[in-house]
Amino acid sequence: MKRASRNRTLSCDQDEINYFRKKLLVANSPKSLALLKNQILCQDFFDAIQYFPQESIDLLILDPPYNLSKNYHGNHFQEKDKSNYTKWFNQVISNLRPLLKPKATIYVCSDWKTSILIAPILEQYFWIQNRITWEREKGRGAKRNWKNNTEDIWFCTLSKDYTFNIEAVKLKKKVIAPYRKADGSPKDWQAEKDGNFRLTHPSNIWTDITIPFWSMPENTDHPTQKPEKLIAKLILASSKEQEVVFDPFLGSGTTAVVAKKLNRHFIGIEINQEYCCWAMKRLQQAKADASIQGYSQGIFWERNS
């Protein structure tokens, strides 16, 4: 498919697919953590997960198919009735639980309808610390309902002792009406050439995220791709350098790419071979360019910066 000259959406030609697919891993026997680190496994989740070592994962980022009918470039997920979806999701979580280290953190992505189904299951296995709601910025309007343009991320931990690096995820916001001290000096803000700014503690409502689109180099044709900036917040908040970040529904590779850019180890599972190849290409590009849009010099900026 020929794209417009300014369209930066990533894809792979057939030669690239032939090259990258040779580098993909398939697990058919028990694998050590050393062998799994920084690898993408191209196979079904339930086929691969049985060969993973226990208590090896520091951070789990889980972005499973929501309970919606969706075509993932030939891999179809069919909407299930509530009981069947919760049964499926429970099987996913029960397989992942033994792989987590005692102080592990778990983030689970969902839409509002899926959140209703998965929250009770998450509560059975983990401590639910919070629920993040982020604005997708996009979304179709509806004549008989509110426009749906938010998603949830459930923040869970395996215990009450867990990593949370608040200083690593502060948001830099412009101050419209800044307060001053009695002597006229700035109070909790800093004057810069582009305006007055303040570093703020992040809340559980995120409005600074931009969904990847055609002019962004991280963009792919994956229908539910998560932004690198969003995943960077999760990784920086809840892991340390050189720890292991695992995404068992990797999609086009965002979690793996961001983990690499932030000096973490990654492991990913993805059933779709083309998505795996996109992820491999993005990882290759990350060697030369570790930038993350909206994040620079250790600071997260407001949207579209």
Automatic annotation (TrEMBL):
Gene3D superfamilies: Vaccinia Virus protein VP39. Keywords: Methyltransferase, Transferase. The keyword NADP does not apply. Its EC number is 2.1.1.-. It holds the Pfam family N6_N4_Mtase. One of its GO terms (cellular component) is cytoplasm. Residues 57-278 form the DNA methylase N-4/N-6 domain. GO terms for biological process: methylation. The keyword Methyltransferase applies. One of its GO terms (molecular function) is N-methyltransferase activity. PANTHER family: RNA METHYLASE-RELATED (PTHR13370), TRNA (GUANINE(10)-N2)-METHYLTRANSFERASE HOMOLOG (PTHR13370:SF3). Belongs to the N(4)/N(6)-methyltransferase family. This is Methyltransferase. The lineage of its organism: Bacteria, Bacillati, Cyanobacteriota, Cyanophyceae, Oscillatoriophycideae.
